[in-house]
Amino acid sequence: MDAMIRRLARVPSQRKTCYSEAPQAQVNASYSAAELTETINDPPGKIKSQGDLNRPGLDDEDILLSVK
C-alpha cells in the first residue's frame, strides 16, 4: 500500500480517528498484521421463528377496529 501511495507522489502516513498521528507502536503493529483469510459466503438459510411476537396494546382486535 505504501508503494502505491508513493507512486502517486504522496507521503504515506497513519492517523488516529481524530487525524492526529498514530503512535509508533500502532503503526508497527499494522505492518505485522496477519494475512486476510478467504471470504466464505454460505448461502442464506431459512430464518426460524422465535415464537409469537408480543406487542402490548396491538392485539388482533385493536388492529381490526382501527381498519373499520
Describe the protein's architecture and organization.
The chain has helices spanning 2-7, 24-31, 60-67. By secondary structure, it is mostly helical. It is elongated, with a radius of gyration of 27 Å.
Task: Please write out the topology.
Blueprint lengths: L1 H6 L16 H8 L28 H8 L1
Report the structural category: mainly alpha
- Please tell me the overall pLDDT: 83
Q: Ends: how far apart?
A: 64 Å
**Which regions have little confidence, pLDDT < 50, spanning 5+ residues?**
none
Essential attributes:
single chain; 68 residues; mainly alpha; 3 helices; 32% helix
Quick overview of this protein structure:
The protein is mainly α and 68 residues long. It is 32% helix and 0% strand.
